[in-house]
Design a protein that fits this description.
With 442 residues, the protein is mainly alpha-helical. It has helices at 2-12, 39-45, 48-53, 59-72, 77-101, 105-112, 115-148, 152-167, 174-198, 203-211, 218-229, 234-244, 253-289, 299-310, 312-345, 351-367, 372-386, 388-398, 401-404, 411-435. Helix 7 crosses helix 16 and helix 9 packs antiparallel against helix 15.
Length: 442
């Protein structure tokens, strides 16, 4: 694993040569200028990938991991690992775009793409922001509802208030927000580490699942489509470039190269850890459900089954992880929405206005009595429809010399990234068609 991450880091990082255009200067609040290859440089870059990693640990991932573990045991662990590798590659490119240009993906798309396409990207991105908040807020509310034995509507209000309170931390700078999100992400990781310890995981099965590359039947293939096709999140691609664009002022190509190296390491390590948490989720659900409860396929059923199988403590920890995932990912979704709107439209929407707009669909869904799990699946479909725009724009922009200078993607990287993008987009198309009853696979 370490060798693969090191190779990916070298693959994305370009040699240090003179750059045509320099970065915009950042305000003192955004960080001090980079001074050499010190631990201060690593500390200055620590945070964006932690925030973005939430997109890969959200309630939507939890649902697909439950289904994968319950129905197919450890067989689909290699799919989770593959999806994580694709996520690492594209988040590296997004962070690289912000560091080299000093601008984010939405801003550069607005300036370099046709107006009609920009308007389409903006509209689809706003839809993605609402879909993201729907999924994440409902997941957190469901956790509150099950843990506190409350109806879903008041639980939704509690989750909404909690996420808004977290967003207020941004007034104190980016560090308090990143620390809060980091605590929630760490909570998710620790919960599933604890679940691993109390589950009777067959470790030889885990190893076999990671290396065997098997798909037992057409149903497994369909589920693999869901695991990969809904992994790379469009809002995470926009947000990462925004988090790195002016974080640390750079005044030379040597500093850009140093910054990129630290950034790539942070992305690789953080998202690899997020991938390992997803592997742990599938392993726990495989150990708990695969033998006798293969029909478990949503969050409520998983919680109700975990208590008798692993104990009330394990079930309670599961809900704690669900709440942490829902709250943190809802906050990140709102942050991404701010970056998208400011980048495409050049104006700032007050936080309380954006939060109210993106939360509204969640209250409508709950008021209509729609199943939270069904709403989660529907939100993943909406995200799948909007994903092609940021992926294509990111590849196109990072491959242009007039934008990236000598830090543009090399031909080999462009080919690998294009193949990965084609696979993800093809699986997203299959996921959407299957959701509408079209039999694509099997």
């Amino acid at each position: 694993m370490a060798a693969i991450l090191a190779r990916m880091n070298a693959f994305v990082l370009q040699p240090s040569l003179p750059l045509v255009a320099g970065n915009a200067e950042a305000s003192p609040a955004q960080g001090a200028p980079l001074q050499g290859r010190s631990w201060r440089a690593a500390l200055a870059l620590l945070g964006p990938s932690v925030v973005v990693s939430v997109a890969y640990l959200d309630p939507g991932n939890l649902v697909t991991n439950i289904q994968a573990g319950a129905q197919y045991g450890y067989s689909l662990l290699w799919v989770v690992a593959l999806a994580s590798a694709v996520a690492v590659l594209f988040q590296m490119l997004s962070a690289k775009l912000g560091i080299v240009t000093g601008r984010n993906l939405a801003e550069l798309s607005r300036d370099h793409l046709p107006t009609a396409l920009v308007m389409l990207m903006w509209a689809s991105s706003e839809v993605a922001a609402m879909a993201t908040d729907l999924a994440e807020l409902l997941g957190g509310a469901l956790g509150v509802s099950l843990l506190c034995h409350l109806p879903l509507m008041p639980s939704l209000a509690i989750a909404a208030i909690a996420t808004y309170a977290m967003l207020m931390l941004e007034r104190r700078g980016f560090r308090p927000m990143e620390i809060a999100i980091g605590v929630l992400v760490g909570t998710i990781g620790l919960v599933f580490l604890a679940e691993l310890l109390v589950s009777h995981v067959q470790w030889h099965g885990v190893v076999r699942g990671l290396v065997s590359h098997e798909l037992p039947d057409s149903g497994a293939l369909n589920l693999a489509v869901g695991l990969v096709g809904a992994t790379v999140m469009p809002h995470a691609l926009y947000l990462h470039s925004g988090l790195t664009q002016s974080r640390t002022p750079v005044r030379s190509d040597m500093q850009r190269r140093t910054l990129l190296r630290f950034s790539n390491r942070e992305v690789a390590i953080t998202l690899a850890l997020a991938g390992l948490v997803n592997v742990a989720m599938v392993a726990v659900f495989a150990a708990a459900f695969h033998a006798n409860h293969t029909d478990v396929d949503d969050i409520r059923e998983a919680y109700e089954a975990l208590g008798p199988l692993l104990g009330a403590g394990a079930a309670g920890l599961f809900l704690l992880a669900l709440i942490a995932a829902g709250l943190s990912s809802s906050v990140v979704g709102t942050m991404a929405g701010q970056v998208i709107t400011q980048g495409f439209a050049k104006f700032h929407i007050p936080l309380w206005v954006r939060r109210s707009i993106t939360m509204l669909p969640s209250f409508v869904v709950v008021g209509m009595g729609v199943s939270p799990t069904r709403a989660l699946v529907a939100s993943q479909i909406a995200l799948s429809l909007t994903l092609p725009f940021p992926m294509l724009a990111l590849l196109w922009l990072t491959g242009r010399r007039d934008i990236m200078g000598v830090f543009r993607n090399r031909a080999q990287l462009q080919v690998v990234a294009f193949i990965a993008m084609a696979v993800v987009l093809a699986l997203n198309v299959a996921l959407v068609l299957q959701a509408f009853g079209v039999r694509v696979i099997g």
